[in-house]
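Fold Annotation — chain and its backbone
Next Lines — sequence and tokenised fold

***
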Amino acid sequence: MSRHETKPSWLRVRVPPSTSREVMSVINKKSLHTVCVEAKCPNQMECFAKGQATFLLLGPSCTRRCTFCAVDKTPVHPPDSNEPAQLAQAIAKMELSYCVLTMVTRDDLCDGGALHITKTIKEIRNLCPAIEMELLISDLNGNRDALDMILRTAPEVVNHNVETVPRLYPDVRPQADYKRSLDLLARVHSVDPQITTKSGMMLGLGETRGEILSTMDDLRKAECQLLTLGQ
């Protein structure tokens, strides 16, 4: 297609502005962060228009320097003690029946931010007792006590992404550890088999078909029940 030809209609997604403005208004008024915005997701407005957002806890900056991620790498700040209550109020305002909470990695905190996550979940359940929750958490630097603290809140789904095959970790996730991620997923299932375990991988980073299948085998051995594959 030359640059003068008409672009296909499916290339541009028209978003109803009212719903997206409502979601953004709630997020901004409560001074909350979303991975949608911080990670510069190209689909964020489409999701906002459907009343969907993935909340990002513990600030907009991360202590890790994964090469694939657009989340800010500037110095982090202490956790905002108002965030748990503000997020719970926002979720109640949006009348969500299912929410996804994710977090930046906070290697500067002794528990990786687990106490803050736990407080947030309790605040949400107090206002929205029927809500179901999915957590996308960091590896908490291998801190099992911190993980167990989060698991005691009994989220419906715990997601931790391995992101790529082990050979590519030095380039893609230089501060992460493949086995540590697998161990986290295995422990979730061991501590509470009622929690659904989930992980995700990116494709197109130079991995081979055999490496993908081998990683899938490792995830199954770690009792991972759901897997997403993306780009």
